Amino acid sequence: MENLKVMFEEDEIQKKIAEIAKEIDKDYVGKDIVIVCVLKGAVFFTVDLVKKMKTPIELEMVQISSYQGTESTGKINFKKDLDGSIEGRDVLIVEDIIDTGRTLKYLKEYLETKNPNSVKIAVFVDKAERREVEVKVDYTGFVIPNKYVVGYGFDVDEKGRNIPYVGYLDN
Ligand code: IMP
Ligand code: MG
Questions:
Q1: Ligand 1 atom having least distance to the Cα of 99
Q2: Within a 13 Å sphere around the CA of 103, how many CA atoms are in the beta-carbon half?
Q3: Which element (helix H / strand E) includes 104?
Q4: Per DSSP, what are the bridge partners of residue 142?
Q5: What is residue 66's predicted lDDT score, i.e. its pLDDT?
């Protein structure tokens, strides 16, 4: 991909994820977690995170999006729902990025209607300055400036997800 600069190298990413995994394990002692991975981008972060965790997990996937190209449409699409019940369970949403916050706010409120015991949020990358709605993020990897990131799950129109590091478009 042209004009792609490195933001986070692979080893830096894995080091950060190990720290988050440790924090989660500390917070969920004696519990087991239903991980809700937000397709598609968060697959990469989810896999690396859960492999580093000791807490037992079950894995759910949902697909919900508010993005087309590189501009937020503000519209939410629910493309895939939960498979199992989360009633009474401790749920951890794992998302690749929080930008305006609309996707995560909507998803958290939706999951809370299913009567879980708790719902927390882990995001790999936070574009904090772009926030439009308030959402509590419980675990954060990196806070980044307002740059469009590509790689390690992040795409430009579905391309570039398998780039092993996090890059940004330098136009
Ligand atoms: P939000 O609802 O505005 O917080 O949007 C979050 C969603 O926007 C993420 O799940 C991503 O799919 C997408 N997104 C936001 N910024 C980027 C980026 O820099 N690269 C790739 N996808 C992004
Ligand atoms: Mg996403």
A1: 4
A2: 26
A3: helix 102-112
A4: 125
A5: 61
pTM of this prediction exceeds 0.70: yes
In sequence order, the 6+-apart residues with CB closer than 8 A to the CB of 152 are: 8, 13, 44, 45, 124, 161, 163, 164, 165, 166
Q: Kindly state the average pLDDT of the residues 101-130.
A: 95
b/e per residue, 87-109, with b = 16+ CB within 10 A? eebbbbbbbbbbbbbbbbbbbbe
Residue 98 CA to ligand 2 center (angstroms) comes to 8
The two beta strands, 57-68 and 33-39, are parallel
Cβ atoms 13, 164 nearer than 8 A: no
Q: Give CA–CA dist 152/58, Å, rounded.
A: 23
Q: Report yes or no: 116 and 77 within 8 Å, Cβ to Cβ.
A: no
The DSSP string of 18-84 is: HHHHHHHHHHTTT--EEEEEEETTTHHHHHHHHHH--S-EEEEEEEEEEEETTEEEEEEEEEE--SS
32, 99, 126, 138: which one is catalytic?
A: 99
Q: Which of 8, 76, 99 to mutate to test the pocket of ligand 1 (most atoms within 8 A of CB)?
A: 99
